[in-house]
Amino acid sequence: MRFDFTVNATQDGILLKTLLKQHGISKNLLAKIKFDGGDLWVNGVKQNAIYSVSEGEVISIHIPAETATVTLKQQEMPLTIVYEDDHFLVLDKPAGVASVTGVNYPDSTMSNYVAGYLKAQDYENQKVHVVTRLDKDTSGLMLFAKHGYAHSLLDKMLQKKSVTKRYFALVHTSEKLEQSAEIQLPIGRKEGSIIERAVVDVEHPTAKFAHTSYEIVRSQPHFTLVDIQLHTGRTHQIRVHFAHLGAPLLGDDLYGGKRDKMSRQALHCHFLSFKHPFTDEMIVLESSLPRDMRLLLE
Q1: C-alpha–C-alpha distance, residues 266 and 137, integer Å
Q2: 142, 113 Cβ separation under 8 angstroms
Q3: pTM: predicted TM-score of the whole model, two decimal places
Q4: Which of 154, 164, 165, 175 lies at a 20 to 30 A Cα distance from 271?
């Protein structure tokens, strides 16, 4: 892929590698450009990374194509594509499918299915880049980058909290729930467990700051629909914070939720927005409630 930048007045005289860093080109990506078949041009002439750039010069970078990961099986499954362009792919993930492979899920994950999709479409870049993950039993919008540069830029946006994700959850009704509120409680590993997390004291050795905001959409005697925004991305953050309020997610028996009405944790990523790093367009995407959560509400 090729990308072009024009040197502005504030960049006059800096090294080419410094300018590329300002545009989100990491050291690893620069090394890939240098050693794996890419090129750097200045006004159409090949240059190296220590070239001193001048205002008005046009910098062009050619990033070599990425081959498929050998250890990741390319599998096929019908995908619900919510958004796609040359840089990003957003899917509506069904509940019950893991996001990435691991010891417990060696295949049949969203990563496998995206790998199969990239192969079927015969795209130039075949490597899968997962930007936002969802727990296996969580449904909804999941964001993939279609090349390493796009992945790097989105990672930086996530770190700066400039990607907005909102979730619908069905939780057990609790007197501790307010119409809208901010939950800012540290999360750490639960004693005696390698899986569970819990709200812990700020001095706990595994404590990490966690911030969740929510608003009640609809409340019934036994369960409540809440619209949630994550401001940090801790493991099991939503599940832990609401369990702490005495309002665990329906179906989430790991954190005290009952499974009589839902066979999985009632959590769905329904909203995703970010400013497109290549076009400056504001991308706003939504996903309706899945059938199991919708039927319970109805």
Answers
A1: 8
A2: no
A3: 0.92
A4: 175
